[in-house]
C-alpha cells in the first residue's frame, strides 16, 4: 500500500514555484546589472566627447580598462535602433566588448572623399546590446558619426549578408573606397552564436541636419519607454499567474 503525503507535496510545490519566480526575476535583473558596468564606461566617454569633442579622463577605478581600450576617437549613433556607442581605433577583444572599433587598414573616420573605414561590432553578447540590432536597419535610414567635434551623417544605400570566407577572399571588392564619395561601412557577425556570415551596412555621407537627428532620437526614446512598460507588465503577469496556480493546487 502506497502512503501519500499531501503536506510534503504542498511544500515541494511551494519551493518549485518560489524557485521559478526567483529565477525569472533574477534573469530580468542580472542582465541589466551586467550591462550597466559596460554602459557606465560607454556613457562616460560619450558624454566627454559630446561636451568637448575629445575623450576626457575617466574615474581612477577604470584606469586599467582605459589603458587597454585607449581613448575613443568618435561616437556612432544609429537612431533607428536606439544605438549610441563609442568608436575606438582597432578591433581587440577589449574594444569590441565596450564599443565598436575601426578595422585596421581601412582608414579613419574623419571624413573625406575616397574613404571607407570599416566599423566592426559584436552581436550576441549577453551583457550588452552592441550591434545586436544592426540587421534591423533599412536602406534610406541614416547613422551619424561624431568626430573632432563635428557630426557627419551617412545615409544607408546598401545592405548585404556575406559568408565570412567570401569576405576574407574578396575584402577589397566589398570595401573598396570610391574616390568621389565619402563612405563608412558597418559590420557585425550573423547569425548570433553561429557567426558564419558578416552583415554589412554601407553608408554614403550626406548633409547633416541637427534637427533631424534630434527628432529621430526623441522618437526612439519614446519606444524605449514602451519596451520598459511591456517588460513590467510581462513580469507582473508571470507573478500573478504563478500565485493563481499555487492557490488552485492548494
From TrEMBL:
The entry's keywords: Hydrolase, Membrane, Transmembrane, Transmembrane helix
Active site at which residues?
122 (proton donor/acceptor), 189 (acyl-thioester intermediate)
* A molecular function (GO) term: hydrolase activity
Do the record's keywords include Transmembrane?
yes
State the InterPro entries in the record: Sortase, Sortase_C, Sortase_dom-sf
> What is the superkingdom listed in this entry's lineage?
Bacteria
Q: Where are the transmembrane segments?
A: 227-246
Q: What is this protein called?
A: Sortase family protein
Q: Which organism is it from?
A: Enterococcus faecium R496
Amino acid at each position: 500500500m502506497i502512503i501519500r503525503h499531501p503536506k510534503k507535496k504542498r511544500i515541494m510545490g511551494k519551493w518549485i514555484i518560489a524557485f521559478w519566480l526567483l529565477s525569472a526575476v533574477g534573469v530580468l535583473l542580472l542582465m541589466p546589472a551586467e550591462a550597466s558596468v559596460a554602459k557606465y564606461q560607454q556613457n562616460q566617454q560619450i558624454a566627454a566627447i559630446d561636451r568637448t569633442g575629445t575623450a576626457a579622463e575617466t574615474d581612477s577605478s577604470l584606469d586599467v580598462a582605459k589603458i587597454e581600450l585607449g581613448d575613443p576617437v568618435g561616437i556612432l549613433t544609429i537612431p533607428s535602433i536606439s544605438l549610441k556607442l563609442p568608436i575606438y581605433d582597432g578591433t581587440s577583444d577589449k574594444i569590441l566588448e565596450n564599443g565598436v572599433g575601426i578595422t585596421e587598414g581601412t582608414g579613419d573616420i574623419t571624413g573625406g572623399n575616397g574613404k571607407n573605414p570599416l566599423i566592426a561590432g559584436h552581436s550576441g553578447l549577453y551583457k550588452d546590446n552592441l550591434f545586436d540590432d544592426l540587421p534591423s536597419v533599412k536602406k534610406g535610414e541614416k547613422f551619424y558619426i561624431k568626430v573632432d567635434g563635428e557630426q557627419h551623417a551617412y545615409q544607408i544605400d546598401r545592405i548585404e549578408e556575406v559568408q565570412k570566407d567570401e569576405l576574407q577572399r574578396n575584402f577589397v571588392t566589398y570595401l573598396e573606397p570610391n574616390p568621389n564619395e565619402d563612405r563608412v561601412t558597418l559590420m557585425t557577425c550573423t547569425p548570433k552564436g553561429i557567426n558564419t556570415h558578416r552583415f554589412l551596412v554601407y553608408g554614403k555621407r550626406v548633409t547633416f541636419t541637427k534637427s533631424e537627428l534630434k527628432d529621430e532620437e526623441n522618437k526612439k526614446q519614446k519606444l524605449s519607454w514602451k519596451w520598459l512598460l511591456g517588460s513590467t507588465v510581462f513580469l507582473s503577469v508571470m507573478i500573478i499567474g504563478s500565485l493563481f496556480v499555487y492557490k488552485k493546487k492548494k
